[in-house]
Every structure is written in structure tokens, then in C-alpha cells.
Amino acid sequence: MTPHIRPDLASIPAYTPGRSNPGAVKLASNETTMPPLPSAAKAIGEAAELAHRYPDNQSGELRAALADFLGVTVANVAVGCGSVALLQELVQITCDAPTDEVVFAWRSFEAYPIVTQVGNATAVPVPLDDGAVHDLDAMAAAVTERTKLVFVCNPNNPTGTAVGREAIIRFLDRVPSHVLVVLDEAYYEYLRLTPEDRPDGVEIGRDRPNVLVLRTFSKAYGLAGLRVGYAVGDPEVITALLKVHIPFSVNRVAQAAAIASLEARHELLDRTHALVVERERVREALLNAGYRLPPSETNFVWLPLGARSAEFGEASAAAGVLVRPYGVDGVRVTVGDPHENDLFLAFATDPAVRARFA
Ligand SMILES: *Cc1c(COP(=O)(O)O)cnc(C)c1O
Asked: Which residues are reported to carry the modification N6-(pyridoxal phosphate)lysine (predicted)?
């Protein structure tokens, strides 16, 4: 007889890894195409030589480096095995009854409904507006006395859209201060809004204990394979996160690579700048070919193709470029190296493909 498994898990789809087609160009996971910088590779090698020793469970050196970089104290910073682990831990520290609600926009990051259900809480998805942007008024209206947590993905994955500083502040002013609001800023480094409009969660959260910011080393910092993300917030929230943290889950190699990458951030952010230039080139080419797509503040673009999304994904894969279709909403295309983007554009702007999809 099989052992008892929580029956509610049956409704969570079993994990299906992103497509990988040998030889195909992969623009499906928002990864950085460039390998770690030499300084990070050196730190990785040195840390690997100490692999027989447990890592620092408190990630003290990394948290101190992050605190210094962000202008906060170590007590304001937690790290996790990728920011997805922190998402799950955030549900664990806020929700303790199945009637507790977690509000988030939809469509947004696919981890939100999953971590909510795994945490035995109730998901409250709030549709994006028709420009694929967070509808913060509707989200504020969806907050009830049962709401324990709100995720705001800014910029939003998979639509690439961002909401500005004023809009975030207006939203926060409407949410009761006992509700934790998580600003998931995985793509923060790709934002090119003006300094006044830039929604810097760390700055916005300084005098708001119910705001917690998530950032990651997986995207602009190029360490997706090592799994390090971090949270910045009120010391009481951070202390709770440390309590539910899976011991030693941020490994020694990951901590060392993150510290080295933070030190080399100017080089990494130059790469980000080059990516933003490519992003605008890709978007322009798609607009000129007749596609509709919202502005992107991330390292990907969004094609709202509705019911034709899966078909577009299949056709692109057949042309050697893997992209990510999302149900009947749209297709997310990561911005890669120029030659990879050219391959995608050659497919998408082909007259026959345009005739079907643009
Ligand atoms: C990629 C991504 C993350 C980061 O995931 P990691 O676990 O840090 O690799 C978090 N939130 C969003 C919205 C993302 O797209």
C-alpha cells in the first residue's frame, strides 16, 4: 500500500522541466548567457575545495556584504536557496490556517500559487489590467481580514511590465500594516525607469515594517545554477524567516560566488546594460513586424498571443528556438545573445509566421 500523501497535493501539477532540445537555442528560462566572471569562478573553485565542511548556516559574510551594499543592517537581510525558497518560507511565516489568503496578480510568477498551496493557504489571484500591468487598485480591494500576504512581482514575470514608485506607495498606503507585502524584484537590475519613477523596494520599505523585498543572484548576477536569493525587511520578519530556513540550504559555493559577484557588480551591471540595448532592439523588430507587445523592464519580452500561444511555441521550437508559452495568455521570450535573438527574430518576422501570429 502506498503511504498517505496530503490529498490536496494531487491538484499541483508534477514538476515539468523547461523544454530542452539538443542544439536548440534556449530563450525559455530568463537565464544570463554569460558564465560567471573570472573572480567569481575563482571563488567557486576555492569554496569547492572546502566542500567537506558545512557552510555558514547564517550566511554571515554574505549578509554583511549585502547589508553594506544596500545601506541596511545585517538584521534586515536573510538569504535563501534561490528567492523561490524565500517565497515558500514567507508563506510559512505568515499563514497558519487554510482560510488565510495570499493575494497576487495573475498572470504572474508561476511559483506564487504553488508555494501558497504547499503552505496550506488560499490563493487570491487578481487579473492584470489589459496592458498586462499589475492592477494595484484591484489588488488593494482584494485584501480582506483573511489576507496574510501579498506578492507584488515588479517588474512582472512573465509580462515584463513594471509599476512605478508612486503607484507602489499609493498601494502600500491602502494595505493594512499587519499584512506583509512582498515586492519581488528579481529583475530590478533591468529597470530603466527614471530615477524618480524607479520602484526601489529597499528605499520604499525603509520606514514600512510590513514591506519585504526579494532580489536574486539568478538573473543579472548570472548565478542561476548556484541558487542564492535574498530578502530585505524588518528585523522581526527576517528573524522569522531564519527560523523556518532549511538548515545549510544556501551552500558554501553559492555564498562565496555571491560575495565575489557582489564585489564585481560593476562589471555585471555593464552586461545588464548591453542586455537592455538588445531588449529594445528585439522589441522594436517585433513591433515593426506587426506584433503587439507591452514595454519590458526585464530581460525578456511578452507576446500576448492568447489562444495561439502554444502553437507559436511549437512553431518556434521547430525553428530551433525554445520560448515559453503560458496557457492561453501569451509567450515569454528571454533576450539572449545577439545571434540567438537574431535567430528568434528570423523566425518571428518570417512572412508566413507573421501572417499567422502578428
Ligand atoms: C527568476 C525569478 C525569481 C528568482 O528565482 P531564484 O529562486 O532566485 O532563482 C524570483 N521571482 C521571480 C518573479 C522570478 O522570475
From this structure: 219
